[in-house]
Amino acid sequence: MNKRNIVVLIGGILFGFGLAYSGMTKQEIVLSFLQLEDLGLIFVLGGAALVAAFAINVLAKLQKKPVLGGEFKPRRRILSWSIIIGAVIFGVGWGISGQCPGSAVASLGTGNFPVLVGIAAMFIGAYIRGLLDS
């Protein structure tokens, strides 16, 4: 296993643990958040946004090159109809099921195996989108 895979594995474990610890792997908590009944997850989302913003805007400027190789490239902010439609589909799916891809996979680690139905639906949707693109 190379250095990149180890870093990705550690990051994935940390991410999954954070999702499970915060309750984002429980659909009932996510749905109560989306219905504005329990806003506790706003701190989880806000914390994640702050960490990401710090990493992108501060750490990237302090480093000469990425730790795992490659190079830093300027971000392009392109808003297209594909992005908007994809975001709407994601949001509707998240609102109906109470799960997004990250929290769905992390919830497998908590023993929530019925979530496999939702994960299968995500794969089917991605496959259909791939067919439409080709």
Overview of the molecule:
- The protein is mainly alpha-helical and about 130 residues long.
- It has one domain (about 5-134).
- Helix content is about 70%, strand content about 0%.
- It contains six helices and no strands.
- The chain has helices spanning about 5-20, 25-35, 40-60, 80-95, 100-110, 115-134.
- α1 (about 5-20) crosses α5 (about 100-110) and α5 (about 100-110) packs antiparallel against α6.
- The longest helix is centred in the middle third of the chain and has 22 residues, at about 40-60.
- The two termini are about 35 Å apart.
- The model has no long low-confidence stretch (mean pLDDT about 85).
How would the blueprint of this fold be written?
Layout: H1 3-22, H2 27-34, H3 41-62, H4 81-97, H5 101-108, H6 116-133
Question: Short description, anyone?
Answer:
The chain has helices at 3-22, 27-34, 41-62, 81-97, 101-108, 116-133. The chain is mostly helical and 134 residues long.
